[in-house]
Write a structure and sequence with these properties.
Layout: H1 25-40, H2 47-54, H3 58-64, H4 74-88, H5 96-107, H6 115-127, H7 129-133, H8 135-154, H9 161-184, H10 189-201
Helix pairs in contact: 1-2, 4-5, 4-8, 5-10, 8-9, 9-10
Protein name: Mycofactocin system transcriptional regulator
Organism: Amycolatopsis echigonensis
Keywords: DNA-binding, Transcription, Transcription regulation
Length: about 220
């Protein structure tokens, strides 16, 4: 059974979430594709098979997704949107890394019945070379959501050292948390995310994120 969500005393606990409502065509295609990928293999499953199983045309499939590999990034992209929206609403008195930690945890709460699907998705993303090759633009968007927030809060431009360092370090930490959670299957995902981001925050305290370092 997943552990209780992690949070500060008095901190609102996010409601379990899904990236898209179950009734949408995009979500239906996503569920069917994931099932077929798991049963048959990613490379063995065709767009025509996914469309046929969903009762739609090939043209309809490409109305929602540019490629077969994009189906498995649907939930991830929704997570990016959620993180961006949550960071836009953070009060200025919340430290940068605490704000990032809260947003990431809020975007990664899932219902218990959704966890098996999430694990299957993550396993495919980490083991299929074509999916790994398509990851760059999705990870860039996730990273950019954090970079933009840090730049705004510190008054620096987005390509300054500290916004870039925080964004990339947070993404790396979250990917490590996902991998350990997926491999061990022994706790709520947020337990790993929370532990990793708290450790990271110790090195990116607000007083450190001041100005751009000067070269010698």
């Amino acid at each position: 059974m997943p552990a209780e969500p992690v949070g500060e005393p008095g901190e609102d606990r996010p409601r379990p979430r899904r990236g898209r409502p179950r009734g949408t065509s995009a979500r239906q295609l996503e569920e069917i594709a994931l099932r077929l990928f798991t049963e048959q293999g990613f490379h063995e499953t065709t767009v025509d098979q996914i469309a046929a199983a969903a009762g739609v045309s090939r043209r309809t499939f490409f109305r929602y997704y540019d490629a077969k590999s994009d189906v498995l990034w649907n939930e991830f992209d929704s997570e990016v949107d959620t993180i961006r929206e949550l960071l836009a609403e953070v009060p200025d008195d919340i430290p940068v890394m605490e704000a990032v930690r809260r947003a990431v945890l809020a975007a990664n709460h899932y219902r218990a019945e959704d966890v098996p699907e999430l694990r299957m998705r993550m396993n495919l993303l980490s083991t299929v070379a074509e999916l790994a090759a398509s990851a760059t633009r999705h990870y860039d968007a996730w990273e950019r959501a954090v970079i933009s927030f840090v730049a705004r809060r510190t008054g620096q431009v987005e390509d300054s050292l500290y916004p870039l360092a925080v964004g990339r370090a947070v993404l790396a930490t979250c990917r490590a948390a996902y991998e350990r959670w997926s491999a061990r299957a022994d706790a709520d995902l947020t337990v790993y995310l929370d532990a990793g981001l708290r450790a990271l925050a110790a090195g990116f305290a607000d007083e450190v994120l001041v100005g751009e370092p000067e070269g010698g």
